[in-house]
Amino acid sequence: MKLPIALMGLLAALCLPASADEVEGKDKNPIPADLVDDPHVREELGINEFTAPSIGKLFDTLNGLAPLPVNDSDRKQAARMPLDRADLAIELGFLIADGFLIVQAGQMEKVESLASDLTRYGKALGAGDRVNRHAASLLESAKEQKVDQLKKELAATQKDVERELVALRDADLAHLISLGGWVHALNVSAGAVEKQFTPERAKLIMREDIADYYTESVAGLEPRISERTNYMAMRDILSGLRHEMVLEDKEVPTAAKVAEIKKQSDKLVELALQRQK
Q1: What pLDDT band is residue 73 in, cutting at 50, 70 and 90?
Q2: 179 against 48, higher pLDDT
Q3: How many CB atoms lie within 10 A of CB 260?
């Protein structure tokens, strides 16, 4: 039986490959270029919409603020891990960020406790084997005072957990790990700039593109997560932060702007660590 010409044309159109823009997700919440972990991941962005910004790269952008006030951001780790997987993921992001802060401050004595916590969280998320390998390398590198290797292992921990979560069809949790790392990094860096303000240091935290990315990222989470009260509040704060961070042509950042960003980042930390009851 011959198909009508019009129907044949429609079928042919449906079989055509998607345009480059469609494949690459041109309008899909692009990751800021300097937060992509490596060229291989950059190549995958077109087919892997789950790739999240690297926490290691987030800290690389803050090198001009070193040393960061680690002691001011010390968090007492809860005795019990959360039961909700979204809470596990975002707290794991905080833990990985803690690792970068510890390494930068040269507090190698804290690496053993960090490695233990990373292992517990990785196991709870279903990525225990991957995290165990990195935890062992973290301990070895800490003993040998290999700072660069410690940073590589922390970044690799995030990447490996992300891969496991995508394989388990839990890609939203990969985004939450990255979000937790950024919220922690922003809070600490805003505190550092507030304590020692200069316009040059302040410019390092004026990243409206990153705030944009996470605003859209939170909105795109599955409703079970995005409609939680704390995540809706986080999205509102992130949207407001974006406006605080925008600098018009030749505008110089002020201490008042930095103080507001620090205030809002304090709220983000509180909301991010608010566990599901």
Answers
A1: low
A2: 179
A3: 16
Q: How far apart are CA 104 and CA 100, in angstroms?
A: 6
φ, ψ for residue 27, nearest 5 deg = -95, 10
Residue 161: its H or E element: helix 147-167
Q: Measure the CA–CA gap between 177 and 174, rounded to whole angstroms.
A: 5
Give the Cα separation of 118 and 127 in Å (integer).
Answer: 10
Contact status, residue 93 vs residue 181, Cβ threshold 8 Å: yes
CA separation for the pair 120, 61 (Å, rounded): 29
Q: Which residue has the higher pLDDT, 17 or 174?
A: 174
Please compute, for residue 151, the number of CA atoms within 13 A of its CA located in the half-sphere on the CB side.
16
> Tokens 């939203």, residue?
172
99-158 pLDDT tens trace: 999 998 889 999 999 999 999 999 999 888 889 889 999 999 999 999 999 999 999 999
pLDDT of residue 215: 95
Q: Which of 97, 2, 65, 44 is nearest to 258 (CA)?
A: 65
Across the chain, what does the average pLDDT equal? 84
Long-range CB contact pairs, 21-24, < 8 A, 24+: 23/47
The CA–CA distances, whole Å, from 187 to 6, 14, 182, 215 equal: 59, 48, 8, 16
